[in-house]
Amino acid sequence: MSSAPLQTDIVIVGAGIAGLAAGFELRRRGYENFRLLEASERPGGVVSTAHLAGIPIEEGPDSFLTEKPAALELCRALGLGEQLIPSHDAARRTWIWRKHRLRALPEGWQMLAPARPLALWRSNLLSWPAKARIAREFFSSARAPETETSVGALVRSRLGAEVLDVVVAPLLSGVYGGDADELSLDAVLPRLAQMARQGSLGRGLWRARRRRGANTGAARPLFTTLQNGLSECITALAARLESHIETRCRVSRITKSGEGYQLECHDQAPGSPAGRSLQIHCRKLILALPAWAAAELLRELDGELAAQLAAVPYASSLTINLAYSPAPPLPDGFGVLIPPGEGLRMRACTFIQQKFPARVPAGWALLRVFYGGVRDSEALALSDEELLALATGELRTILGLKQPPAAGHIRRWPRAMAQYTVGHGGRQQCIQAALARHAGLALAGNAYRGIGISDCIESGYAAARKFIHA
C-alpha cells in the first residue's frame, strides 16, 4: 500500500458481499473512480468456502433464497450460471428434536403457522391441545394490533406457548440466531405481520398456498447455491474489481474534510513497517460494515448516528462441518432443528448431501452443525477439541451417530448476525434521518433491510446508486 496521499471520488469500506456489490454496481454503470478497502486478507466477509477431505464446505451461509432474485442474477451476470445448483426439494423435510426423538415438521409449515391443516392434524410433533388451538385460530377473526410486537408475543397469543417453543423458536433461531420474544414481527416477517393484521394467520397462509397452486408454472427450488462453493461468486466479483480493492487496509478514523471525508488507514500486510498509515480523501463514502463497526468509525463525525448504529444488537455463531465416509444412515430430509429446553446446546444440523446432492461425492455425508446465537454466545469460547466432542456427542444423541467423522472444520463468527429486535423500524428511521445530514455518506450490509445474501447485495446496489451522477 502506497504511503502517498490518495484522492478518489468514492471509498467503500468493507469488502463483504454488500461492499463488493456496491463496487460491482459502480463499474456496471461505467463508474471507475472509487476504492474498496478491506481490513482482512480476503474479500467476502461471512461468505467463505473452504475444503474438507476434498469437499467444498461453507463456513458461513451455504445458499441463498431463490425467491429473492438479486444473488441469482448476480451469479449469472458474473458468468456463473452453469454452476448454479438447486436444493433437492423433492427430499425436503425438516425434523424437530422433541422429547428424545425426531419428529417431522408438518409439511407446508410457514415459519409461524401451517399452510396445510390436514398435514398438521396427522403430525405427532404437537399435542392435541396445541393442534386444537391452531384449529381455533384458523377460524378466528381477531386482528393483530398495528403497533410493533415481537414474533413470540404474537405466536403465544394466537397459537400458544407450545407452538412457539417447539416450532417457531427453533425455526427463527435457525435463520436469525435470535430469540423469538425479542425479534420484531414487522422487521423479520413483514408478510406474515400483514396477514396477522388482516385476520387468521393459518387462513391467510392456506389462501396464499392455494393461489400459488393455481400458478401452473414449474415451482422454483427453495434454495440455490454454487457447485464449487459460494466463494466462487466472491472470486468472480474480486476479479472484476481487482484494480479497485485494497485488502489488509484497516480504516481507523473518519473525519469531515471540506465537502468530503478524510480516512486514516493502516497497512495490515505481513511485514509492513509498524505504524505505516495512509490518508485517503474522498467526496463520498459507503460503509459496508456491521452496524457496530460503522458506529465506531462514525463516533467522531456524528455521535447521534453512531449511537443509533451501536444500538443494533448482534448475535455470534459458529459452524462445524463434519465429513463422514462411508456415509452413515440418516433420516430423509434437509436436517434437524433443536428447540430450546431440550437439554442440548446444538441449534441445528443440516444434511448437505441431501440438501445439495451435487456438492458431496457419492458415499460421503457432510453435516453442518450450528452453535451460538443470542442464548449461547459462550459456545464460541470453547476450544476446537471441546466443540468437536460436543458436536459428535450430541449427534450421537439425536441421530444415533456413533461413527467418528473422517474430518472436521470449525469456523467462529463473533458479532456477525444482526438482530432485528422490537424497535428495529424506529432505529432505521433514526438512522435514515441522521444520514440525511450527510449527503455523501451511505450504509450497506445486513443491519438494515434484510440479513440474507440477496438482501445484502441489494443494499450494496442501493448505496452505489445513491452516488452515481450525484
Rg value = 23 Å
Under CATH, the topology of the largest domain is which? FAD/NAD(P)-binding domain
Under the CATH scheme, the architecture of the largest domain is 3-Layer(bba) Sandwich
Total number of domains: 3
CATH superfamily of the largest domain: FAD/NAD(P)-binding domain
Oligomer: single chain
Low-confidence residue ranges: none
End-to-end gap: 29 Å
Query: What global shape is seen?
Result: globular
Give the helix level as a range of percent.
25-40%
User: CATH class of the largest domain, anyone?
Assistant: Alpha Beta
Short description:
The chain has 16 helices and 21 strands. With 470 residues, the chain is an alpha+beta fold. Strands 1, 2, 12, 13, 14, 15 and 21 form a 7-stranded mixed β-sheet that branches. A 7-stranded mixed β-sheet has the order 8-7-17-18-19-16-20, sandwiched between helices. A 3-stranded antiparallel β-sheet has the order 5-11-6, with helices on one face.
How would you sum up this structure, described in words?
With 470 residues, this protein is an alpha+beta fold. It folds into 3 domains: 172 residues, 3-Layer(bba) Sandwich (FAD/NAD(P)-binding domain); 103 residues, protoporphyrinogen ix oxidase, domain 3 (Orthogonal Bundle), CATH 1.10.3110.10; 105 residues, Polyamine Oxidase, Chain A, domain 2, CATH 3.90.660. Helix content is 34%, strand content 24%. The chain has 16 helices and 21 strands. Strand 9 and strand 10 form a beta hairpin. The two termini are 29 Å apart.
